[in-house]
Amino acid sequence: xxxxxxxxxxxxxxxxxxxxxxxxxxxxxxxxxxxxxxxxxxxxxxxxxxxxxxxxxxxxxxxxxxxxxxxxxxxxxxxxxxxxxxxxxxxxxxxxxxxxxxxxxxxxxxxxxxxxxxxxxxxxxxxxxxxxxxxxxxxxxxxxxxxxxxxxxxxxxxxxxxxxxxxxxxxxxxxxxxxxxxxxxxxxxxxxxxxxxxxxxxxxxxxxxxxxxxxxxxxxxxxxxxxxxxxxxxxxxxxxxxxxxxxxxx
Length: 250
Known about the structure:
Elements: H1 3-8, H2 23-50, H3 52-55, H4 62-70, E1 91-94, E2 97-99, H5 102-111, E3 119-123, H6 129-135, E4 140-145, H7 148-160, E5 166-170, E6 183-188, H8 197-202, E7 203-213, E8 220-227, E9 233-241
């Protein structure tokens, strides 16, 4: 498999290959987290340069990269996977879900093009890692998770880590969060067969949405949606990706 394909495929069953860990191994992994995080940043930077032609840039926003360097990804994965937390790959987090590849998290955060006064909607809280990265960069993150157990765990985790500018709701993200709209940016971390109309309605004029579009458990396309000042939208196809499907009553 070529490098570009390997970068973008979200390996749903990667956790099957993780070896049993001892307490000594876990302690040693704790000592390596700082260096592992730095290595992850270097790999993300390399992936950005490698894919620059597709994404239209050779480097990501320094605020996003600083957030990637600060947020402890090992706090967002199961204990058995902590030594692998900074590998530039997706990891299983239970309930058939994954924590996204760090490169994809950084890229999607960057493409929102939001700032410190922005309010962002996230669909698919998962472990809360993407939520935390966004919280480092914006004023407020409203996040929706349909799996109650994951949403409650993420809410508690974000609170314990000191994030006061996040709010997690259990529900169907397809319909957005109208009470807090319009949003400066919307990020969807699960694949849809189409771009949900409620999300377009809740996107502020001049705002951006990042969403994977395509069939479930197949290669999808990462789509950038931009809402112009006149209310019209334009879309741009960026990269092939593979996310778990968005679920709900729609």
